[in-house]
């Protein structure tokens, strides 16, 4: 499993040891979903301005959001044997506001957004209430599995 993490913003300081925790999330998510552990995920931290541009460009919504996912995987392995799942983009400014609003740590909020983004890369969505319920259950299963709720 490979997590390529890039920080393209300077407004919010990343919590210590975050990369290790996010790698555990990806490993657990892949394990729970039965996806080969050689998969690669790209994670980019941006500010609200950058995620608003992406949200407008790709979703026609001219406002910042917390997380965007750009799936690349179609369920097949590449000829090289690698699985390129895709890219997750998280606005740390929005994540920080939401952490304060929900009364938990920035680390916890980033972890939740990472799980949410990863599930989108794996084909989950929340367009209707049934899909939303299934996705929420998967989010909780992964977060509980890595002891983030305790």
Provide a descriptive summary of the structure in words:
This protein is α/β, with parallel strands linked by helices. It has helices at residues 18-33, 48-59, 92-102, 106-121, 129-145, and strands at residues 2-7, 39-46, 67-71, 83-91. Strand 1 (2-7), helix 1 and strand 2 (39-46) form a beta-alpha-beta unit. It starts with a strand and ends in a 5-residue tail after the last helix. The mean pLDDT is 91.
CATH top level class name: Alpha Beta
Count the domains.
1
Poorly predicted residue ranges: none
User: Any idea what the radius of gyration is?
Assistant: 15 Å
Total helices: the number is 5
Keywords:
alpha/beta, 5 helices, four-stranded mixed β-sheet, Collagenase (Catalytic Domain), 150 residues
Topology:
Layout: E1 2-7, H1 18-33, E2 39-46, H2 48-59, E3 67-71, E4 83-91, H3 92-102, H4 106-121, H5 129-145
Parallel strand pairs: 1-2, 2-4
Antiparallel strand pairs: 3-4
Summarize the structure.
This protein is an alpha/beta fold and 150 residues long. The protein has helices at residues 18-33, 48-59, 92-102, 106-121, 129-145; strands spanning 2-7, 39-46, 67-71, 83-91.
């Amino acid at each position: 499993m490979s997590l390529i993490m890039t920080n393209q913003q300077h407004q919010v300081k990343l919590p210590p040891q975050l990369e290790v925790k996010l790698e555990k999330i990806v490993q657990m998510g892949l394990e729970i979903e039965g996806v080969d552990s050689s998969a690669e995920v790209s994670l980019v931290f941006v500010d609200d301005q950058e995620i608003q541009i992406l949200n407008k460009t790709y979703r026609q919504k001219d406002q910042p959001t917390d997380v965007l996912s750009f799936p690349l995987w179609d369920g097949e392995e590449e000829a090289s044997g690698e699985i390129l799942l895709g890219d997750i983009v998280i606005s740390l400014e929005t994540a920080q506001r939401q952490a304060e609003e929900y009364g938990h740590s920035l680390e916890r909020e980033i972890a939740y957004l990472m799980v949410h983004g990863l599930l989108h890369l794996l084909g989950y969505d929340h367009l209707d209430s049934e899909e939303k319920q299934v996705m929420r259950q998967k989010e909780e299963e992964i977060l509980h599995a890595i002891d983030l709720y305790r």
